[in-house]
Design brief:
Blueprint: E1 19-20, E2 33-36, H1 49-65, H2 69-83, H3 86-94, H4 98-105, H5 117-124, E3 129-133, H6 138-147, E4 156-158, H7 171-181, E5 188-192, H8 199-204, E6 207-211, E7 223-225, H9 228-233
Length: about 240
Amino acid sequence: MARAIKPSPVLRPQARRRMTGPMPKQHFSDVKTWVFDLDNTLYPPHVRLFDQIERRMTQYVMDILRIDRARADHLRHQYWHEHGTTLAGLMREHDIDPAPYLIDVHDISFDCLEPDAQLKTRIQALPGRKIVYTNGSAPYARRVIEKRGLTGVFDVVYGVENAGFLPKPDSRAFDAIFALDGLRPTQAAMFEDDARNLEAPHAMGMRTVHVAPKPETADHIHHSTDDLAGFLAELV
């Protein structure tokens, strides 16, 4: 699944940075809107913030369905795989109210997050509008943005509630958010850690960037990087 990776001299001094795909700058010249996922994209996955959310998801499933932890953890992952998010599965299979769920599962500690001045500088330097679009809630996203020192960087933050609780990778969710925002997909780029969430943006004509420790090879992924700030530095 991984591509052959050779260090390039143009990437110093961050010698460990990995980028795949053609050198990116010329491929982003028409981009007017920059769309960023939140979890494991605007912060590095090694801080394991989302682990806390997953534990709370499992507990919520246990409580609301009155099942044991093993069964709840299985359903949490199954619904994520089949429906895009655990929430979507709970709504479709059990008709739960999404609002209390979103409040509960995002009631976590943000102490593991630190400000990233370099990332802030790189995003601010991008020409055009910058937005965050997450399968989490918008209030949660704003907390993460604040803890990462990125307050004021983005023009708007969209959560799953803004798509009528339809989650990525459902193309209808992207349609809803992009219509709400008024962006033109052919003049936009999407940055995501979950490769499947880039399929719909690619089909719409967006430039796609997979942000993850390990690259994946797929037709709907134009670029891959494990260093978002470093990748953005190549674009301006």
